[in-house]
Design a protein that fits this description.
312 residues; Translation Initiation Factor IF3; 4-stranded mixed β-sheet; 4-stranded antiparallel β-sheet; 30% strand
Length: 312
């Protein structure tokens, strides 16, 4: 029975063909054809309708910094994690990295930011600033990932900077318009978004497993704490590598989040439950090139305070 007793409208052959084209483009990491055509029309319009997620202060500082806001752009990707055997019985203890569990998060992030960059490029932008994101699991499964990112595409109108050669498409950053302006005033420039998710599994020692079922008062779960540090180390090493590969010499981390999921397994012939903890670490930031150009429009001055004590 159709929902609410109504039959869905019949799609025309043209609509069916258009949907097939969009699915094929999305499968290749692209954006729907309609979105591309809309952005290309925007880029060539003499009087485009402006949209942005910038605040009034951000907008004014962006203009003062030599960047013209163009349009609100977005990127999205939803990944369903394929079947994967946890293999609890194969863990001999200690901490092990789980690359297959990190892959859905990294793939979803790469595709969503890739689509954001495509939209900015079709809009004729040089960069995207003020990027905001939503990243979460869906359908009740931590392996099913939804990423949505959006920001403001801008065109670099500063004569001293707009003539510089660009490679790899518009620059992306997670910094606000105010922060980008401050960087440009000291001669620094945003290079690209960097990010990584690492996932590790820790199997508790026999003593820690037994203590999980007893009341021993407050105690630190040292092996789980160690796993958090390991996950952070793996994620930070990868974002450092990405920053260096992009030609940056500094980076600003905007997101550092983690989750811990608990699992237990009884079929190991030990007489007690074996406890496992899966730690996922998510890192996102912006790679920055210090000394990329001369300060623009001018270095920030030293704050001054004026005190008027009145007439003598």
């Amino acid at each position: 029975m159709p929902l609410f007793g109504k039959r869905p409208p019949q799609l025309s052959e043209e609509e069916v063909a258009s949907a097939a084209v969009d699915l094929e483009r999305i499968g290749r990491g692209g954006i729907p054809l309609g979105a591309e055509e809309r952005l290309k029309a925007f880029a060539t319009s003499s009087a485009p309708v402006f949209s942005s997620d910038l605040t009034a202060k951000e907008y004014l500082l962006t203009e003062a910094s030599g960047m013209t806001p163009l349009a609100l752009v977005m990127g999205s990707s939803v990944i369903q994690h394929g079947w994967s055997n946890y293999g609890w019985g194969g863990f001999g203890g200690g901490i092990s990295e789980l690359p297959s569990f990190a892959q859905p998060w990294n793939l979803s992030r790469e595709r969503s930011f890739g689509r954001l960059r495509q939209e900015a490029q079709f809009a004729g932008a040089d960069a995207v600033i003020g990027i905001e994101l939503t990243a979460k699991a869906f359908l009740g499964e931590p392996g099913n990932v939804e990423y949505v990112v959006f920001g403001t595409a801008v065109r670099d109108t500063a004569e001293a900077l707009s003539s510089r050669p660009r490679s790899g498409g518009p620059r992306l950053c997670t910094l606000s318009g105010q922060d980008v302006d401050k960087l440009r005033r000291i001669g620094a420039e945003t290079v690209d978004v960097i990010g990584h998710t690492s996932v590790v599994c820790v199997a508790l020692s026999p003593r820690a497993n037994q203590m999980m079922g007893m009341w021993w008062g407050n105690q630190e779960m040292r092996e789980v704490t160690q796993a958090v540090y390991t996950a952070r180390h793996l994620a930070m090493d990868e974002v450092k590598r990405q920053a260096q590969a992009a030609g940056a010499n500094e980076m600003v981390i905007s997101t550092l989040q983690h989750t811990i999921n608990h699992h237990e397994y009884e079929g190991m012939g030990m007489g007690y439950k074996q406890h496992f903890f899966i730690v996922s670490m998510h890192v996102l930031g912006t790679a920055i090139a210090l000394g990329a150009h001369e300060p623009h429009p001018a270095p920030l001055g030293v704050p001054m305070m004026s005190i008027n004590l009145g007439a003598a």
